[in-house]
């Protein structure tokens, strides 16, 4: 039996202009790979194709519905691209889509909805959605009531408009090859400053621990513990699946959050902290910092810090530059904000989609006590191998924890 409010919404939607055809990208727009948070880096292999749920009959405005599982639960992410005529009805449309997905797939534990402006939609790294929501099956009625204006709902976000958000900056195509100290960005670096930074980098790599605001690994001699970190969080399809696996294993992690993603999906950031994880700074727009002026780079860090403090009520302690690419000036900017810049010892390259077997070989070879593991929370192959990785760490008597949990 379809609830009365939902039947009314379906009647309303049937009269609206039909939006983008389901699962078809708009003409002239790049086809974003499943799971992307920023444009794909040059030389990266295509990501595995995610399963698509086709709703029959089709729902106006639905661009695509992806469905993914982690071996325990299944989650759906519905992307809506709405015309100007549809946008005043975005809440009703989101409620309709969530209800239709839950009815079509009884195994789906949660539906996450992202509703975009059809004319400006450019994938996950483009302009922010108009509206987002996380709808666990048990909360579906509460979400429907909110969409109908009959009460609050805490797992939603409505875009306040560009005047309330940082000016949009397109994310960079960043490929991680290792931490890289760039001699100079747009702002010239004084030789003395550059030399001092090189000494600090060498000291942090050799001794471990926090050396002048730089952290490559735990203090030398650390046993039995390593930091598990995820870049590019949060993603509305992968986040509930990833958090579920970590909860089941008892592992803790540090999520290096892109500010714009946290802005649009704040409830996932709150979930991370509620479940004992740590949130850290990965810039607001996921941009390479060396080409920016120091004030521009500082803004990228400060915007994210301020947002995360507002969402979690806790200060932000750690920062990781996109691609590991930094200058002496950007390190100083991070220090002035009270941030320690964190790199890694173990990067199996999940975002380059090398294949599950390659990832398993790499992380088994590189996992070390005192190390820092780099994964990406939006990479399909990460999710494929994470259960085995968590099991392997336990077998090696290595407890996976947050960056803050490492001896420094």
Automatic annotation (TrEMBL):
CDD domains: CE4_NodB_like_3. Coiled coil: none annotated. Gene3D superfamilies: Glycoside hydrolase/deacetylase. Pfam families: Polysacc_deac_1. The keyword Hydrolase applies. InterPro entries: Glyco_hydro/deAcase_b/a-brl, NODB_dom, Polysacc_deacetylase_ArnD. Keywords: Hydrolase, Metal-binding, Signal. This is Polysaccharide deacetylase family protein. Residues 1-23 form the signal peptide. Residues 224-403 form the NodB homology domain. The keyword Chaperone does not apply.
């Amino acid at each position: 039996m379809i609830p009365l409010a939902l039947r009314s919404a379906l009647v309303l939607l049937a009269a609206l202009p039909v939006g983008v055809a389901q699962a078809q990208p708009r003409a002239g727009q790049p086809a974003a790979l499943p799971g992307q948070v920023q444009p794909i880096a040059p030389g990266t292999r295509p990501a595995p194709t995610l399963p698509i749920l086709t709703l029959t009959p089709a729902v106006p405005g639905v661009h695509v519905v992806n469905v993914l599982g982690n071996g325990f639960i299944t989650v759906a992410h519905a992307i809506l691209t709405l015309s100007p005529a549809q946008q005043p009805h975005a809440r009703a449309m989101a409620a309709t889509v969530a209800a239709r997905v839950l009815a079509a797939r009884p195994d789906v534990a949660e539906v996450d909805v992202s509703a975009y402006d059809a004319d400006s939609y450019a994938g996950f790294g483009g302009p922010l959605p108009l509206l987002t929501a996380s709808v666990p099956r048990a909360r579906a009625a509460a979400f429907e009531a909110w969409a109908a204006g009959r009460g609050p709902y805490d797992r939603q976000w409505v875009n306040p408009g560009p005047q309330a958000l940082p000016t949009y900056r397109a994310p960079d195509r960043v490929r991680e090859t290792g931490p890289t100290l760039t001699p100079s960005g747009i702002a010239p670096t004084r030789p003395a400053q550059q030399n001092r930074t090189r000494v600090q980098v060498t000291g942090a790599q050799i001794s471990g621990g926090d050396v002048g605001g730089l952290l490559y690994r735990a203090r030398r001699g650390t046993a039995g513990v390593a930091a598990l970190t995820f870049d590019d969080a949060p993603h509305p399809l992968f986040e509930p699946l990833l958090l579920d696996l970590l909860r089941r294993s008892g592992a803790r992690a540090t999520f290096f959050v892109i500010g714009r993603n946290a802005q649009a999906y704040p409830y996932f950031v709150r979930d991370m902290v509620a479940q004992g994880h740590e949130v850290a700074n990965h810039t607001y727009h996921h941009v390479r910092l060396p080409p920016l002026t120091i004030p521009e780079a500082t803004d990228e860090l400060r915007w994210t810090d301020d947002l995360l403090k507002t969402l979690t009520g806790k200060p932000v302690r750690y920062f990781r530059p996109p691609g590991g690419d930094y200058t002496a000036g950007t390190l100083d900017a991070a220090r002035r904000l009270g941030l320690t810049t964190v790199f890694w010892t173990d990067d199996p390259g999940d975002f380059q989609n090398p294949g599950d077997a390659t990832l398993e070989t790499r992380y088994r070879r590189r996992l070390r006590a005192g190390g820092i593991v780099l994964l990406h929370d939006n990479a399909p192959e990460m999710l494929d191998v994470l259960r085995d990785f968590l099991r392997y760490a336990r077998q090696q008597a290595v407890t996976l924890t947050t960056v803050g949990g490492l001896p420094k």
